[in-house]
Amino acid sequence: MAGKTLYDKLWDAHLVQQRADGSSLLYIDRHILHEVTSPQAFEGLRLADRKPWRLDTNIATPDHNISTDREERAAGVDAIPDETSRIQVKTLDENCESFGIREFKMNEMGQGIVHVMGPELGASLPGMTVVCGDSHTATHGAFACLAHGIGTSEVEHVLATQCLVTKKMKNLLIQVDGELGTGVTAKDVILAIIGEIGTAGGNGYAIEFAGQVFRDMSIEGRMTVCNMAIEAGARVGMVAVDNKTIAYFKGRRFAPTGEMWDRAVSYWQTLQSDPDAVFDKTVVISGSDIVPQVSWGTSPEMVVPVTGSIPRIEDETDPVKRQAIERALKYMGLQGGSPVTSIPVDRVFIGSCTNSRIEDLRAAAAIAEGRKVASTVKQVLVVPGSQMVKAQAELEGLDQIFIEAGMEWREPGCSMCLAMNADKLGAGEHCASTSNRNFEGRQGNGGRTHLLSPAMAAAAAIAGHITDVRSLNQRNMA
Amino acid sequence: MKVFTVHKGLVAPMDRANVDTDMIIPKQFLKSIKRTGFGPNLFDELRYLDEGQPGQGGRERPLNPDFPLNWPRYQGASILLARENFGCGSSREHAPWALEDYGFRVIIAPSYADIFFNNCFKNGLLPIVLNENIVNDLFSEAEQNPGYQLTVDLPRQRLIKSDGEELSFEIDPFYKQCLLEGLDEIGLTLKEADAIRAYEAQQEIRCPWLFHAIK
Which helix (H) or strand (E) holds A451? Predict the structure, then answer.
């Protein structure tokens, strides 16, 4: 019999029931809630007079629509200026209070973007099944969780039953061999992968990222990669456990301790695909070929190396793709054939569940240090992913580096990644953004997003246009 | 949950690939704490010329004349014809809520994003998968024939054109059952409460650290 993939192992370990109709009941170890996709689920529980199955698996925090402005945040929930946002955050507070769910409130240490605070608190741990009403839940796969986004009906289902009714996905292995060049980061790797397999390439699959590049990558870098599995169509993205994984969780707030830690570690060490495991599909990419990436269009697959040019309509033969390129060029206000470094930048956003962890901020600060934001750039937002990231960054003096460069240091939240709060682009503005989606209107009605790494975003802020970070004089670059 | 059996309706085209859920329902409308009322803001940025705000209906706003759903011939449409990877991106269930609230009961496309596809069935919306060539033909037929209607027969898994021609489609038996019976999934799962408890008891021995409360 063939060996098991990491996904097979996690699936088998959480299978409660295989039903005759082909669906499965999968047990959920950790459920993370936020203000936007949970109110209707709590309401559903109330209407049916149901209670959460197991309270201690749930953890909540507001992140999507809260202000990142220091004064607005300090004024508290009751002072959130936008009424609908205020109601939504208060509703989360009230629901968590009345159902007894542990919430890290808006200004409490521990609060943060769900996919930043979960791992840093050790609330999500290797080998767990983790779900959240947010498609970037795959982030937690970076340490061998079976983690994915769910809809609000499923949020209610998990609250009520601790299980998900689901079907097993297929296995996709993405192997990136070799070593990354200087200035090439986890973000560039995942953008290059999406460019290669397309935004629907992973539909129906759970991805395992393997190969030298991921073994060399930090846990935070792996989180950046797994975070964007959904942008390749896959609900799940995972990396096997290694010594880095175990070291990352030691001493985290909700991680086991003492004898329990030892038992957990010996289980976690089994969380790799067997050498003879069979994948339904395998994609192999050479890591040394990857250069810093930039998205030019309105889908994450519309990505080019920073050394490349914006595609021309006439070079595409497929009619549906041609139409998509034509539409994207028009929306983005770009000319096919021009170098991607010719794109001017109006605003820069450094943050989001993809790139707002301490390593991301260090990488951006290394570029910003001793430099000034170009006069043509209207705003540079640096938004830490959590209260803990913010505190650590301030301890290291990164906030001062950003402020001295002319950037704004903000309070933790999702911010301009999806522009549910006041942080948004104006129509026609180009943004160098470390977030995950460049869809039309994503960062503000008519806004034009260019996805790239934190170092590349900082470099764009300094240059005033998209630029190859490797061409800057990098004193501190790793 | 809403029951779906047989549905006959007007077909409207959405002729672009990779339609994402941000496009189906933009972020500002996600601040609602309700499940209903998203219909007027379905495809908001494509449908209107101004920027929509929560609570704003569609009536007083300037319509985009280039957007097919605004054309008189597609008013009252309940079957949406779409391209590949429909519903990609965000997991927001507000997307199927908005489609359903607008009046759509069926979507026909060559492929869907996984989370969106799954969310449809929770809301009585039937996403039908047909191969790209058939979808291409349906696009031409819908565009060439004003008032173009289709009948969707879920029990028989057939799409019936007005001239009687039938196309068959595949659907997972579990999803089919959910739609046909409008099942309360939570109620069904709770019937298996003993199996869930048995799993927990076993798991607590195997991985006890998973049963340490978050404090």
Answer: strand A448-451
Rounded to 10 deg, the angle between the A219-227 and A358-368 helix axes is 100
Report the phi/psi class of residue B188: left, alpha or beta, with left for phi > 0 and alpha for psi in -120 to 50: alpha
pLDDT tens column, A123-158: 999 999 999 999 999 999 999 999 999 999 999 999
- Using an 8 Å Cβ cutoff, are A60 and A103 in contact? yes
pLDDT value at residue A474: 56
Judge whether A418 and A436 are in contact, CB under 8 Å.
Answer: no
Interface predicted TM-score (ipTM): 0.95
Closest approach of B111 to chain A, Cα-based (Å): 9
Residues near A43 by beta carbon (within 8 Å), at least 6 away in sequence: B33, B35
A349: which DSSP letter? E
Which amino acid is it at A2? A
DSSP code, position A337: T
Rounded Cα distance, B143 and B15, in Å = 11
pLDDT band per the 50, 70, 90 thresholds, residue A461:
very high
d(CA B93, CA A433): 26
Q: CB distance B215–A64 less than 8 Å?
A: no
The 10 Å CB-count burial string (b at 16+, else e) for B176-192 is: bebbeeeeebbebbbeb
Residue A454 to chain B, least CA–CA distance (Å): 22
pLDDT tens profile A328-349: 999 999 999 999 999 999 999 9
Name beta bridge partners: B55: none
Name B8's bridge partners. B151
Give the residue ranges of chain B where pLDDT is below 50: none
Contacts A152 to B, Cβ<8 Å: 35, 93
Cα-based angle A19, A23, A24 (whole degrees, multiple of 5): 70
A116-153 in b/e form (b: 16+ CB < 10 A) is bbbbbbbbbbbbbbbbbbbbbbbbbbbbbbbbbbbbbb
Please state, in angstroms and rounded to a whole number, the distance separating the CA atoms of residues B130 and B211: 45
Compute the distance between CA of residue B37 and CA of residue B97 in angstroms, rounded to an integer. Answer: 8
Q: Does B20 touch chain A (CB under 8 A)?
A: yes
User: What one-letter code names the amino acid at B196?
Assistant: I
pTM, to two decimals: 0.97
Q: What tokens were used for A424?
A: 């948004």
Residue B117's H or E segment, with its range, is helix B114-121
